[in-house]
Amino acid sequence: xxxxxxxxxLILVIIFFITANINVSAANLKDAFKSxxxxxxxxxxxKTAQGSGFNTVVTADNIIGVIIQTALSLLGVIFLGxxxxxxxxxxxxxxxxxxxxxxxxxxxxAIIGLIIVVSAYAxxxxxxxxxxxxxxxxx
Length: 139
Prior knowledge:
Elements: H1 2-27, H2 44-51, H3 60-91, H4 97-138
């Protein structure tokens, strides 16, 4: 029984690392567009960013925003995994009340957790935006 689950987990881990490798390779494409000579000025990507109005300066606000966005994305993936696992337990319960109850509890816990996280983000975003407006309007 253990080896059956271990084999499935191993396959999922291998698939994860294969797809993660593709994403890392795509992230390194920025180096391909850099100018080779430092005297030629900004790279193609920098010119495109400036032309489209994006700020290329990295501030603490940008870094914190990326961290929050990454954490929320990770929580979404965890939620999806728990939902799939709970659904799998429910479908393979075969009428076993204990297993079906465990699956239902797992699914409800995932839903409640997601609601709490999204609500906390929405409330904090609302408060920060309103406080920011109030502070900026005074000066």
